[in-house]
Amino acid sequence: MSETSETREATAPPAPPAPATPPPVHGEKLDRAVLATAGVVVLGALMSILDVTVVNVAINTLARDFDTSLTTIQWVATGYTLALATVIPLTAWGAERFGTTRLYMISIALFVLGSALAGTAWDAASLIGFRVLQGLGGGMIMPLGMTILTRAAGPHRVGRLMAVIGIPMLLGPVLGPVLGGWLVDDYSWRWIFFINLPIGLLALVLAARILPRDTPGGRARLDRVGLLLLSPGLALLIYGLAESGANGGFGHVQVILPAVVGALLVAGFVWHALRTPHPLVDLRLYRNRVFAASSGTLMLVVIAVFGGMLLMPLYLQLVRGESPLDTGLLIAPQGLGAMLAMPIAGRLADRTGIGRFVPIGLALVAGSYTWLSVQLAADTPYWHLSIALFVTGVGMGFTMMPTMTGALQTMPRASIAGASTALNITQQVAASFGTAVLSVVLATTMTGRLGGAAAGGSIGDLAALPQDVFARIQPALAESFGHTFRIAAIFVALAFVVALVLLPKRRPAAPVE
């Protein structure tokens, strides 16, 4: 159990031929072929990430139109990220079995199909089901895209290229809320799904023309035992967590039973994966100290950030009465801050250790969330919120993609697909936990502070209250959001401690291929 991942690979049976991608060039500049490949990957990633932020703005509208509660309609977001988390484990195996480019195009096609069906949903249950189908396609887009780009650029340029693929993470918070608000206000919530169709079709055409053709390995073996343990385990864990909101807490059999069974299945997968030569997800990668520390940091910050991306749109619409379009415009400073920080962070990741600047980004996010937890009120000036969101965005730009970059820089080429899969599992599971935990905290806090005005009711019930009644509960409603941001800040603070202690202060040497 003390051998490194590199040693284990050297003694493993011969691997199938690597996909026929162009060999990486380790010069300073990103050549035209690499940039063209990056453009295709960014388009696919933009579609999937934009979808998340667009839907967050529409949560309030969906709850009203379907006359349902926050804990139910939250499954529109949680069900999607849950589907992502359960399908991502298949990515490394699927890329070897079918070819990276081919699987990438299949994933986009499935996502487009799910989007078309979601736009035709007739009730909350059908919408949640179609969102799960979307997630099954979207789950592989990011890890496959990261694999394609990392192989094309090589470890010496992966920081700058990860800054390129970070563009969707920058534009999503900027364009998503604005686009979603405009579509919901002026057209229909259905168009937040239909808008994916032209983007997805364009991505398919460009992928067929630009991405390198790769040859499937043909000898890939699916870890069926691992699949039967990991995917249901993750699903049951997140389901149990989400059910705690609907049941008013964690002490109910509907919560405890699926959560415990899910935890046991995941534990069983860990035991199995460490003892099989070809596991579904190679947990031996976590013997690499940088990879393990980066994964831990990423998990904690994603829990907080994705939860925060849910909280602020709901605050602006529920407490302040803003329209979806105005909500999107008010949230835009967060994306602008990330847009300024990401290119700088990408260059720093190629030149120095991520441990020098990732803690600074985490401190900025923790500081802004702490400020929101104290100052968020029914009449907080919008320019105060804009500053806090801008600082959050700058912190995100110096944190999320650089953390993933630092992990991938230490991986030999043969391990990139597996490492990318593991990182994306971490990210998507953390996103599911973050949205579930913080929505439960918010719903529980609202019930405690507002009593019968919120207990078990729908979001539409709050909006339908008489003006004088709503004015009386508005301060307590705002305090509920502030308390929930305090929980998010705690997760970021934990990530700061992990990053400060464990992330490397010097850039790791290039791995032996």
Write a compact overview of the structure shown:
Helices cover 75% and strands 0% of the residues. With 513 residues, the protein is mainly α.
Determine the fraction of residues in helical runs and give it as a percent range: over 70%
Q: Evaluate the radius of gyration.
A: 22 Å
Task: Quote the distance from N terminus to C terminus.
Answer: 22 Å
Along the chain, the helix and strand elements come as HHHHHHHHHHHHHHHHHHHHHH
The helix/strand class is mainly alpha
- Report low-confidence residues grouped into runs of 5 or more: 1-27
Biggest sheet, in brief? none
Molecular shape? globular
> Per DSSP, what share of the residues sits in E-state strands of 2 or more residues?
under 5%
Helix run count: 22
Q: Got a strand count?
A: 0
Mean pLDDT: 79
